[in-house]
Amino acid sequence: MSSEDIIDALALTAKLMELHDENSFKTKALANAAFRLSKLRYTFEGRSKEELIALEGVGKSIGDKIWVMLTTGAYPELTALVEKTPAGVIELLGIKGLGPKKVRQLWQELNIESPGELLYACNENRLVTLKGFGDKTQAQVKQALEFNEANRHKFHYAALFPQVEYWLNALKNEGKNVVLTGQMARHLEVIDELEVLVEEGTSLLPPADFPVKVTVHSSAKADFGRRQLELSATPEHLHQIQFEQLPVNEIPTEAIAYARLQLPYMAAELREGIGEVELAKADRLPALLTVNDLKGTLHNHTTWSDGVHTLAEMAAQCIANGLTYFGVCDHSKSAFYANGLSEERVLAQHKEIDALNANYTDFKILKGIESDILNDGQLDYEEDLLKTFDFIVASVHSNLRMSEEKATARLIKAIENPYTRILGHPTGRLLLARPGYPIDHKKVIDACAANGVSIELNAHPYRLDIDWRWIPYCREKGVLISINPDAHHRDGLKDMQWGVVAARKGRLTKEGCLNALALEALLATFTH
After folding, report:
1. Are strands 325-328 and 178-181 parallel, antiparallel or unpaired?
2. Cα pseudo-dihedral 88, 92, 94, 100, rounded to 10
3. Are 113 and 243 in the same domain?
């Protein structure tokens, strides 16, 4: 079992315990542990039992359970719960907005035992007969069911990438030509099919937990590059480059394919057919951002709110990663569920930051906060405290069910606050888990441009919000993109790589990235 499998098993066990009305104290403790571990995204593999128990948020009880799963691949407690629960009821536990208690109602009172039966019941207006349900809840359940169905059998790019990379490297070690094509080659954030092009004679043993489409290329033809380009680009891109004019033979590489079409090489992640060809023909393709261009990291959490590591530990990791500044943005006071900082605790944190900064020479911790955007668009501190921060990330965390008009107005009000410097994860989406709330992107981006506010590309691979498709419009309006890991522990800082992957699809350059600026230039943007 992988680390992700283990955390999922713990979370499911907690849900099933609540579904069957088992000990509420144990259920809550297990649910809290699973939730915390899902945010921390530890790697359990290779650790001893003692090391597992010592991990923050684990402890002996959970550590013992993880050790059993890690060493045996089994979890008897979960197995026993699964055996007495219909498979379809377990599926219902994955429906957004349906907790175990509501699922128990549906199961016991309406005899609903599958998502299909639940959707039928919604269409028949049957949920409104249950206590605690109503027209609004029924509509939300139906919407969640339809969202889940549309995203069935899809995967996060970042979740697939390490496994796919390991598999491909193993094949390449055999001396065979094997390349990714399709969605993975273009680095799409969500993948529904893994496609590879392989040289004839390659022995393929693909991973079995996701679909793989294999195209075998005959080694007798010197057109591997032509085929690779054909399979890694969208039909729109191929049409725009007039791919059909390429000769069939003697195109061994993609670079040669583009050269034969009298075009500059276009990286695979750009081959969407949404403006890149026009830029290439005008010789205006930008030099894309790289991870090495990033000078620092903004929007990170510590033990002051809901993070795992201290300010000093997070800063030390940034220094080890070659960064020159670290922006701490613990949660503000409205985020009580995440140990948000009261006014007094903000000032205490600032004292610790000052003390730490006194010991650095070529590194600086920046005083930030992730300030909740309240329902009316206000930030949740008074001006006297807001002005003590170096910068503020303003984010929505509550009341996500808004109309486009309401959500847009709420964001614009926060953007117009003179202390807001970065708009955090602007739609609140969680890829494959929940859609973002609807906003008028152009109005929001225009407001950021008018108020000198940058927009976050939240680099957590399950967010990647702002969507990369809006980056060209941001840059057209002069809005900088801040690639923020939203890290809650040291390993979370690595997520900036996924933000860069998404940003490159949006043709972002280092000049358009806020945290590619050197410290002095960054601080200048904060004092506009």
Report:
1. unpaired
2. -120
3. no
Same domain, 323 and 468: yes
Q: Which residues form the domain of 507? A: 291-526
Give the N- to C-terminal CA distance of the chain in Å, as an integer. Answer: 51
Q: Is residue 286 part of a domain?
A: no
Q: What is the pLDDT of residue 58?
A: 83
Q: What is the pLDDT of residues 446-502, one digit of tens each?
A: 999 999 999 999 999 999 999 999 999 999 999 999 999 999 889 899 999 999 999
**Residue 152 near residue 145 (C-beta atoms within 8 A):** no
Enter the pTM of the model: 0.84
**For residues 15 and 262, what is the distance between their CA atoms, to the nearest angstrom?**
58
CA angle 182/483/475 to nearest 5° reads 80
State the Cα–Cα distance between residues 42 and 431, nearest whole angstrom: 20
Write down which residue in 103, 119, 150 finishes a domain.
150
Residues 63-75: tens digit of each pLDDT: 999 999 999 999 9
CB atoms within 10 A of CB 173: 8
Residues 266 and 300 reside in one and the same domain: no
Tokens for 187, please give them: 């680095």
Per-residue CA distances from 389 to 361, 374, 520 (Å): 21, 19, 16
Number of domains in the chain: 3
Of the chain, the percentage scoring pLDDT greater than 90 comes to: 68
* Phi then psi dihedrals of residue 25, to 5 deg: -65, -45
Contact 251, 257 (CB under 8 A): yes
pLDDT digits (tens, 9 = 90+) for 246-272: 988 889 999 999 999 999 999 999 999
Are 127 and 183 in the same domain?
A: no
The domain that contains 172 carries what CATH number?
3.30.460
Q: What is the CATH number of the domain that holds 359?
A: 3.20.20.140
